[in-house]
Amino acid sequence: MKRVSFVVFVVLALASAPLVVCPQTENVVGSAMDKVGKMERLRQSSNYQTMLDMTFPEFGAAVTKTVVMLLPIGSIEEHGPDLPVVTDSLLAVAELGDVQQQLRNAGIEAIVGPPLNIGITNEAGDWTRDGTYMYPGSLTVSADTFVRLYVDLLHSLHDNGLRNVFLVSGHLGGRHVKSVARIAEEANREIAGMKVYYLVESERAAQLNLIPNASLVLLDRAQNFPMLTELLGPGTEQAACAHADGSELSLMLHYYPNMVRPGYRKLPEAPPSHFFAAIIAGDATKNPSGMGGLPFDKASAVVGKKIADYRTHRISETIKLLLTDRQQIHN
Ligand SMILES: [Zn+2]
């Protein structure tokens, strides 16, 4: 009790003491705050700006400078008890904001396209209650609707002056990924004068037997499970997926810390085999948490930044290679 009273006394004394800051300290603190403010303004003005944030004259002006678009594709699906159902969409937007900045540093302007959020979350077919679709809050659309929706969007972007579009998906469900590949293929067939590339993680492409072609471009080792294992520690199983796990949690702690629910540190490990067993069988009781992948106890914003830096560098470099003909930037 005595100890508690002493602690309370010290806290109260500190709280009521006048704040004395010497001029030197004030300068250091002031300049640190300026830096934080500048960083924050930079994030708001470029990194996270999609075309949804633009006015129409701003968008009109942007397409006079570039015909390149980075189009984030996401999903609305369960992401465990600690992350919101819009996680995949948010991460695709945030990563492409970083990619936009990295391309800008290399002299390439790009516009980040509108996130539509909806993706495909079931696996056996339209409206089957498997995949993550069997969990509350996971939404889906049929594969044909999904493909048509995005091909129409690409038509509309073409009418708005865009000519080179890079699709990047934050969601890596099997039917979803195959459907994004279809979007790129069908758009390239239907829309004259537009080039559409789906940049897909090489590990996921290999799992789904997807062969690269003119519209399907591999992001070489973009998931990098050995790196994730090094950063987050080995789980009880070899890493084979990263859904609502320590790596996605770290990315969210880096990009959107306010959206992560408190208590995430206490999450139990969710081994990949439990996740796959549940989503394939359509039986949520095999994996009630809905999560699957790397462990949580080392998850942090610092780890998230390392993963984000690695991934966004991979994406930027791939786009730079595809845009070696600079004509493609200004058409
Ligand atoms: Zn996810």
Provide an overview of this structure.
This protein has 331 residues and is α/β, with parallel strands linked by helices. Helix 5 crosses helix 6 and helix 9 packs across helix 11. The N and C termini lie far apart (74 Å). The relative contact order is 0.13. It has a single domain, classed as Creatininase (Rossmann fold, 3-Layer(aba) Sandwich). The protein is 49% helix and 8% strand. The site of zinc ion (ZN) has 6 residues, from helix 4. The site of zinc ion has 6 residues, from helix 4.
- Uncertain parts: 1-30, 41-48
Q: Report the CATH topology name.
A: Rossmann fold
Number of strands: 5
The DSSP helix count reads 12
- CATH uppermost class: Alpha Beta
Question: Can you summarize the main beta sheet?
Answer: 5 strands, parallel
Strand order in space, largest sheet: 2-1-3-4-5
| Number of structural units classed as domains | 1
- What would CATH call the homologous superfamily? Creatininase
Q: Proportion of β residues? A: 5-15%
CATH architecture classification: 3-Layer(aba) Sandwich
Q: What are the distinct ligands in this entry?
A: zinc ion
